[in-house]
Sequence to fold (176 residues):
Amino acid sequence: MEEGGGWQTTVTPEIAAFIAERDSAYLATASAAGQPYVQHRGGPKGFIHVLDDKTLGFADYRGNRQYITAGNLAENDRAFIFLMDYAGRQRVKIWGRARVVDNDPELLARLMPKGYKARPEQAIVFKVEAWDINCPQHITQRFDAAVVTASIEKLQRRIQELEAENRRLRTSRDSK
Fold:
């Protein structure tokens, strides 16, 4: 974060919109001794909430019960969130400080995605210190399976419509 400078320090409406579209993120922490750890976090789009222009939060779901991230944050609150949009070929890096929040049912209810079946254990609250958007160079474009499936279904419906129209036109022509 200190190399180039010039990073944004508050969450803008554009970055908030970008975050709201993510269903996947990587959260990096380090122990007090500096041992790094990166863990994937996921959920429905918008599982990471913008609480204000300096704060993000998300429900921390029950998982593999390793608790390495929680252990790291207990001794070193420095953290990093990496967000990737493969289809749009964009990545956002967010530096800050994070903490685990236990026993706050109101916050957890606010952060829990509606209708999502995961079981939340606690919340992670992330104070944004800086963020940056990288250029799209070297990002391989990839698409979500649901997006591809919807596009294929739309094309298949259109093909069926055109084939039906083609049959009607042939029948009409042959009957003359």
